[in-house]
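quick one before i forget lol
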Amino acid sequence: MKRLTGFALVFFAFNSIALSMAAQEAPPPASFTQEDGMRIVKEVRKRLLTLSNYGVFDWITFGIHGNNIILNGYASRPVLKSDAERAVKSIPGVAGVDNNIEVLPPSPMDDRIRAAVYNRLYTNPVLSKYNANQGSIGRAMGPGPNIGGITQNPPMGFNAIHIIVKNGNVMLFGVVNSQMDADIANIQANSVSGVFSVDNFLEFPGKTSKPE
């Protein structure tokens, strides 16, 4: 939260002191007990992962602040943002939801890139094991006759590597078995025509955090 004391100094020094004292005396936000926190984390994760419209072209993370759930990430369809908030808001004990999920802009170019990156990744001999839909890769061959393109008719099932596309820029999220697999995914995504950049956020055992 932004501190207000600096703004108050524009008016009177006395107001600045009063606001500072009030901030110090304000009680911290209520928070879950350890037992409730573990229960709620488990339930939030379950509800998000079982959303029927949460797929390979979306990525949602969450956190807890006090008794509120904070949602972050990207949604390829607007309905997912509202569905995610509705799903976690109804969990007993949750006071509110701060929904920071970004809805990706509709774009035929991004739709084409989603399909192309999906196929480059999941038809690769090394990476195909991360696709629960092995044998039905043709579902993601591109917009074709599908109304709305692949965003409106994405591949179903579990995919370990999530593909986020925004204005020709690609982000990869998820978990793979090794750095080699993460590097191959990066190479495959970069090889797609029309991709401007690739940010590889894939996690793997032994990965060290990069300096900001």
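fyi The longest strand covers residues 68-75.
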